[in-house]
Amino acid sequence: MKKKLLSIFTAVVLTVSMAACGKGSGADNVDKDKSKSVGEEVTLSVMVTTRPTTDAKDFYLDWLPELVKEKYPNINIEVEQLPTDQYKQTVRLKFASGQGPDIFTWWPGLQAQDLVEAGYVRDMSDFSLLEKFNSDIASSYEFDGKTYAIPLGSSFLTTWYNKDMFEDAGITELPENWDEFLDCCEKLKSAGYTPIATGDKQSFVIQFGMYQIGASQIYADNPEFDDQLFTGETKFTDECWEETVSKFEELYENGYVIENSLGLSQEQSRQAYLDGKAAMTFDGSFGYDALNKDGAASFEKGMFALPSNEPGEELVYNLTPSNGLFVSADSEKQEAINQVLEYWFTEGTPLFEKWTTTTSDISCYEGVTDSRELIKEYLERYKDNASIYNLNNAWPEGVSDTMCTKFQEVITGNADAKDVCQAMQNKFEELNK
Questions:
Q1: Model confidence over 245-295: pLDDT tens digits?
Q2: What are phi and psi of 309, to 5 degrees?
Q3: Is the CB of residue 177 less than 8 Å from the CB of residue 257?
Q4: How many CB atoms lie within 10 A of CB 222?
Q5: pLDDT in tens, 12-35
Q6: Which are the contacts of 418, defined by CB distance < 8 A and separation ≥ 6?
Q7: Alpha carbon 349 to chain centroid distance?
Q8: Among 337, 340, 319, residue whose Cα is nearest residue 328
Q9: Phi and psi (nearest 5°) for 129?
Q10: Distances from the Cα of 292 to the Cαs of 26, 98, 298, in angstroms?
Q11: 234, HSE (Cβ side, Cα atoms, 13 Å)
């Protein structure tokens, strides 16, 4: 398998011949503003997923409205944030009712397909600063040759760990295969520590461990697995996927996961890790600020890719385009939107500086480097390994939700790995008719 970030769009090409809806044209929408004077009071609605709580000012909730107001006194920014599991449904309902947000963040690949097909989002291909962004990342938001979002960066799924607990349990080397990872868990458990905290009450959190396992289990042998789903050459019921779910299930069966994980939210599982109640948690680079806060316990933190590979086989890790910034095609405030975006993404402006220094994403903007030591250390460690996007980026929207909710039944003992895989395949076939 070649060292690369695998393309998530071959599947789209195979299954979707998309005609860009007329109302998605940026030029057409800018014309809507010609009746508005530059100084007229304008309020732009912005929607984002819930940000991690920190002591510092938040970019979207604080800096964006404040700095835009300083630059453009007539432009007000109103930000609404929702947890991920509510966010998708709310955004879709708003657009369906004709009240979509002016600007919003969304996921790449097939997760954005329905919004593009419905004509809800504006074609951003003519955005003057788009060339400043990494073209490979930008292509993650491309449909039918048009780019529908401004890429905000990349991120990776990872396993955060407590270095002090590892040392106390006699773990001197990070695990490089599945057997070594299980051995780490057993040593931690024997030393009196809970190995893993997960917030399975919010089903989307299940992805953070499952996709790390799937990266090596599925894509090391067949990097084209997702493309082949659409041609019928592969299925979610194939052995590689059943083994992926079984390995994740094994962690629960062996008592390595915190008790009552189905009663914990993502925030509560993060807090359990910070308070020293568990040695590890499955999360991502996007949790950097939240997981570097002080908790009840003080310890040195680290990250490693969860290795599901067998000894001597290749470890593949998750590195994926993160959310992009989308614009409503039907907004009547396109001129104000353009002013904000130009100000936001022009190097050297106060808003640009706050964005690049507060973002949880790994920047894909030309010339911007990441200063976070753990991020740099992680990327350096795995620079020679193959990487894969977050797996659901290549699936029709809904398959991942099915996987997560069905795995909740596995945790309660009411389903098994075969049931999860069959449910995923059924959902895929339903959505891909």
A1: 999 999 999 999 999 999 999 999 999 999 999 999 999 999 998 999 999
A2: -70, 155
A3: no
A4: 15
A5: 323 333 333 333 434 344 444 433
A6: 237, 242
A7: 27
A8: 337
A9: -100, 5
A10: 40, 40, 11
A11: 21
* Cα 399 from Cα 402, distance rounded (Å): 5
Three-state DSSP string of 377-416 = HHHHHCCCCCEECCHHHHCCCCHHHHHHHHHHHHHCCCCC
Q: Where is average pLDDT lowest: 30-39, 118-127, 249-258, 330-339?
A: 30-39
- The amino acid occupying position 79 is V
Cα–Cα distance for residue pair 231/242, rounded to 1 Å: 20
Q: Are strands 150-151 and 142-143 parallel, antiparallel or unpaired?
A: unpaired
Which CATH number is correct for 42-152+322-363, 3.40.50.880, 3.90.460.10, 3.40.190.10, 3.40.50.720? 3.40.190.10
Cβ neighbours for 97, distance < 8 A, ≥ 6 positions apart: none
Q: How far apart are CA 385 and CA 6, in angstroms?
A: 12
As given in the structure block, the two tokens for residue 394 are: 């290549």
Question: Residue 17: what pLDDT?
Answer: 33
State in words which class domain 155-320+374-432 has.
alpha beta
Task: List Cβ neighbours of 71 (8 Å cut-off, separation of 6 or more).
Answer: 343, 349, 350, 351
In angstroms, rounded to a whole number, what is the distance separating the alpha carbons of residues 411 and 399? 19
Distance CA 327, CA 46 (A): 9
Rounded CA gap, 279 and 161, in Å?
6
Structure tokens given for 127: 């955005």
- CA pair distance 212, 210, nearest whole angstrom: 5
| Alpha-carbon gap, residue 46 to 21, rounded angstroms | 23
For residue 31, what are its two tokens?
């014309």
Copy the structure tokens of residue 47.
């929607």
What are the structure tokens assigned to 237, written together? 């019921």
372-420, pLDDT tens digit by residue? 999 999 999 999 999 999 999 899 989 999 999 999 999 999 999 999 9
* Least confident among 4-13, 36-45, 68-77: 4-13
- DSSP states of 349-373 as a string? SHHHHHHHHH-SSB--BTT-----H
245: left (phi over 0), alpha (psi -120 to 50) or beta: alpha
More confident residue, 31 or 46: 46
Instruction: Write the DSSP assignment of 166-178 as a string of letters.
Output: HHHTT--S---SH
